[in-house]
Design a protein that fits this description.
Elements (H helix, E strand, L loop, with lengths): L8 H12 L8 H12 L4 H11 L3 H10 L11 E6 L2 H5 L2 H12 L12 E6 L11 E3 L2 E3 L4 H14 L5
Parallel strand pairs: 1-2
Antiparallel strand pairs: 1-3, 3-4
Helix pairs in contact: 1-2, 6-7
């Protein structure tokens, strides 16, 4: 079937381009998934199904890899990634309180994305900023020595910067 007349053809262009650079064998699955996620921002269900059809790798195998490695996302991520550290130093210095304040302020749980698509909240084992514990990272910027009120203000500032009300 010709995709050139299909309204979805633009959507599938990255998929076709990426797969053309691979043989589509099982040993290439991780690099293929990495490239697909880079193109789509996450791994959409229809892309996973199409990958299975094109490569002969079962959807269950693809999903096994995609769910095993934390780098892969099965839902769209927010514009900003907020990571909260739960390493030992952060845990001892109040990461749980900071996490509760973040969840409350954003109205989501760890691992979720805000309904407006602005923030995805994730927990990590260590951000490598132990001297600043407890720490969060927004995109590539670390914020340390946090408490509930500080982290709430950081989120409000982020929303203000984006021109959105919180």
């Amino acid at each position: 079937m010709c995709n050139c007349c299909n309204s979805d053809s633009k959507y599938y262009e990255p998929f076709e381009t990426i797969l053309s650079g691979f043989r589509g064998v099982e040993s290439e699955l991780i690099p293929i998934l990495q490239k697909l996620q880079e193109a789509y921002g996450y791994l959409p269900e229809d892309i996973i199904k199409r990958l299975s059809e094109r490569t002969g790798i079962f959807v269950t195998q693809i999903m096994g890899v995609a769910t095993f490695y934390s780098q892969f996302k099965l839902r769209p991520a927010g514009k900003h990634s907020v990571k909260i550290c739960f390493g030992t130093a952060c845990h001892v210095n109040g990461a749980e309180t900071v996490a509760e304040a973040l969840c409350d302020e954003l109205g989501i749980k760890l691992g979720e994305t805000t309904p407006d698509g602005l923030v995805t909240l994730e927990s990590v084992a260590c951000l490598g900023c132990c001297s600043l514990a407890p720490v969060i990272m927004i995109d590539d910027e670390a914020f340390g020595r946090l408490n509930a009120s500080k982290v709430r203000q950081i989120i409000r500032d982020l929303y203000e910067k984006e021109g959105k009300s919180k």
